[in-house]
Every structure is written in structure tokens, then in C-alpha cells.
Amino acid sequence: MLPGDDRRTEIVDKPLEITLEDMIVEEDMVVTITHQGYIKRSASSLYRSQRRGGKGVTGAITKEEDFVQDLFVASTHSYLMFFTNKGKVYWLKVYEIPEAGRAARGKAIVNLIKLEPDEKITAILTVREFTEGRFVVMATRKGTVKKTSLIAYSKPRSTGIIALLLEEGDELIAVALTDGNQDLFLGSKEGKSIRFKEKQIRVVGRATKGVRGMDLEGDDVVVGMEIVGDGTAILTVCEHGHGKRTDASEYRSQRRGGKGIITIKTTERNGKVVGINKMMDDDDLMLITTLGKIIRIHGANIPVIGRNTQGVRLIGIESEEKVCGVARLAEKEEE
């Protein structure tokens, strides 16, 4: 360099870093988990929309003793917080989950996160980022609910952390992300339900127990939890392939801890309730069965009828199979 010339090379403190996530296209993926712990992600476009009552298509090839148990939809850039029956939580990015075709079984989840031998995934929460003013609300099989700040779960560990403390014999079954001012809806196996204000649950620390959300009778258990509001509809699905939507206005707000009211008749035709979900006309529903069959139904094809009714057939199933999972898709198909 000659005297008086300006330096042409710019010196910076550190080079611009491009992460793996920067190279991942953001899109919605269908994540499926089998009863024996196999997981995969597939493009939601693989599942075509069908009319109510159709036979569906195969969503996973499983061993004879295995079946598809859970199905979720999330962006590739989101975190998946895996909540387990033991009250612990683990983290993965959606793009870290192996991608496979519609009929593939997937990869053993124990190869991705370090679960204990007697631990299984029972609920998943998708989170784009951890911020103040947001809360994790949890529900257990025995009707307990708990609310904790989302920030309390922002430091993942490979071995997981405690999400809540459970009573003996209880399990975590549902999780929701809220702003602290929502109406919560719990649905039970015997077709009962309760709606109450989230403000009735005080915010507590991460490693603590919850409070009573629903007073269950006999061997009844909670099968799901949703956030509801005016203008929404609650979908209830039973194990024999029947279900319905009911306007949320039919569920009056009650005090937390009550016995609740009927949401669907659990007759011999219907069987027990396997899942509940908030669903509108323009939503798409995914149902999965114990034989690994999947059907996609447009919300407008599911009638909105009263609480104390049996519903209609949503999926045709064989005598030896049952519906075992329900999920609402974020991706919409063109008519």
C-alpha cells in the first residue's frame, strides 16, 4: 500500500454468522408420534382433504402392536416443548425432527431426547420465542390445572426440567400458551366438560403443584383442554369415529373445580371421548386411528349441534380399530 492510500479492506470485530436455522424454509409440518415412541415430520400438503365419513389414508406404517397416538402441526422454526406424563419438559426445534414420507414410521424419540425408561410424551407446546406476559397452562388426567410464566421454561437442559409436581397416580395430558386472560375448557372421557376463567388460577412457580380444575366422578378422566371464546366452536370426537361441533356459547362460564356439564353423549354407538379441539368452518381436522390411518376433514363439513347430542360419523373404522388422536391443521387447502 502506497503512502496516502486509504485502506480498502474493512476490518470488523467478527464475521457474519449464518446458522443452520437461517437455511431452513419456514413451513408448517405435521408431526406424528406413535404409542411406542416413534416420531417424524411430514409436509401437511401430503394429506388431501376428504369428505366426512371417508375411509382415510395411511399416515404411518406401524408394527402390529404399535399405533399412532399423537399428531401435531408446527412451523419448522418453532420450538417443540415436549411435556411428559411425569411432569417434565424437553425441547427440540421442529426442523431437528427427521422428515419422512406419509407412510413412514419415523425415528425413535429416545434417540432425539433423553427420556427416562418409564416416561412418555403426553403433550406438546409450540413456541416461537420466550417472552414476558405469556403463560403456560397445564391440565392433568385427574382434573388438576396449573399456570406458570413462560419465561420459567426458557432454559432447556438435555435431561429436561420439571414442568409441574404431580400427585401420585396422576399424569400431565394437556398444555396451552395464554396471555393470562382466557377462558379454559376441559373435556372428560365420559362426555362432561367445564368452562372457567383463567384468572381463577393464580400464577405459581415451575416446580409446584396445581389446583383443582374439574371435579371428576368415578373413573372419569380429563382428555383435553382448550382456550375458548365467543364465536368459536368446540369439536368433540369419540373413539368409534363419531363427533360434532358445539358453539362455545352453549358452555356457560362456571367456577373452577365444579363437576361440569354434558358436552356429548357417550353411548355404545359413540364410545368414550378421545379428544376435544377448538374448530371453525375454515379449519381442517386431522383424525388418526389405532391402525395408523389418517383422514383430513374440512371444518365446514362437521355440523354444529347442541351439547346433549351424539354427533355424526366423522371417519369409517374397522371393528378392531378406534380413533386415538385429533389435531387442527394450520395449513388450508384450496377448494
Low-pLDDT residue intervals, each spanning 5 or more residues: 330-335
Structurally, the number of domains stands at 1
Report the biggest beta sheet as strand number plus sense, adding barrel if it closes: 4 strands, antiparallel
Give the class from helix and strand content and strand pairing.
mainly beta
What is the helix content? under 10%
Number of strands: 24
Shape: globular
Number of helices, where a helix is a run of at least 4 consecutive DSSP H or I residues: 0
CATH superfamily: DNA gyrase/topoisomerase IV, subunit A, C-terminal
CATH class: Mainly Beta
Keywords:
four-stranded antiparallel sheet; 335 residues; disordered C terminus; globular; mainly beta; Neuraminidase
Summarize the structure.
By secondary structure, the protein is mostly beta strands. The protein contains no helices and 24 strands.
